[in-house]
């Protein structure tokens, strides 16, 4: 009998390459790898790659295409990661996807998906992303784009195709093409003149959190030690706007705090309404592409924007970010990896990064 008892059941031609990718997923406990299960010959148990149990020795692992194949080989399911329950998640994800396919002409909220599945909004999002690899909002955008291509391929006029695909207006096609944040620079007049802004503050694990909204989306998220200071800062930023306290935002603050701990990617789906220069907007969009649990230096962000010398300008854009967590400037650190300034406090920055790292490790 050979020394290694690793085997791979796969229809792909290059088994060695598949084996290497599968084992790498097990080593990093990758929860997104859903196309196989692994079994441990010494325990008789099979798991998903993201299982939090102790990592087995490499020579004691067998790979199977699915849970049914592992069971047929005589292995039993792990009680920690419950690999056979993934099919239930797949059913939920398919239900949500079918619902989204029928609602192309409007934005579906996470709350609606929560009601549809009987889960919390952020749990629904987490299941959807885990099974399908993208958020519900990204799925809707891709569905509209796919429908638009199909309509145009049939020879319809651009205008007819736009409306048939669910965009609602031709301008929305161009907005969605290059506007990842769902907002436009210069949207506000200086000081928010003529704009009604609803806001509320509530205590969280990160201290007091203030969330402010216009009719289009969130325009400010601030963190601090006491709420009066946060309110004063909001009034200073939007001195000409009509500010209204809105206790109904308390639930949104609670959901955001929960997402920060359990599913940071879910925060990217919340609609934003920010005012900024074109350069600030580019920086903020770049920050939102940094995966939760990872960091970048100011120089790396500048290089990603095509201007490696713009380090100070990037730092200023991070410092002027009005939406904590939603525009994750906390993921930018010094070139030596040290935590640098954060407008809401370095210790708070450390705590957020620690929570994201913990969530990523599972």
TrEMBL record:
Keyword flag Methyltransferase: yes
Domain spans labelled HTH araC/xylS-type: 94-191
Cofactor note text: Binds 1 zinc ion per subunit.
Cofactor(s) it depends on: Zn(2+)
Residues forming coiled coils: none
Domain of life: Bacteria
Binding site for Zn(2+): 47, 51, 78, 81
Biological processes, Gene Ontology terms: DNA repair; methylation
SUPFAM superfamilies: Ada DNA repair protein, N-terminal domain (N-Ada 10) (SSF57884), Homeodomain-like (SSF46689), Methylated DNA-protein cysteine methyltransferase domain (SSF53155), Methylated DNA-protein cysteine methyltransferase, C-terminal domain (SSF46767)
Catalytic activity: a 6-O-methyl-2'-deoxyguanosine in DNA + L-cysteinyl-[protein] = S-methyl-L-cysteinyl-[protein] + a 2'-deoxyguanosine in DNA; a 4-O-methyl-thymidine in DNA + L-cysteinyl-[protein] = a thymidine in DNA + S-methyl-L-cysteinyl-[protein]
GO MF annotation terms: DNA-binding transcription factor activity; methylated-DNA-[protein]-cysteine S-methyltransferase activity; sequence-specific DNA binding; zinc ion binding
One Pfam family here: HTH_18
PROSITE patterns, per database record: HTH_ARAC_FAMILY_2, MGMT
Keyword Zinc assigned: yes
The protein's Enzyme Commission number: 2.1.1.63
Active site: 47, 329
Family, similarity comment: Belongs to the MGMT family.
PANTHER family referenced in this protein's UniProt entry, alphabetically: BIFUNCTIONAL TRANSCRIPTIONAL ACTIVATOR_DNA REPAIR ENZYME ADA, METHYLATED-DNA--PROTEIN-CYSTEINE METHYLTRANSFERASE
Name by which UniProt lists this protein: methylated-DNA--[protein]-cysteine S-methyltransferase
Organism: Acidobacterium capsulatum
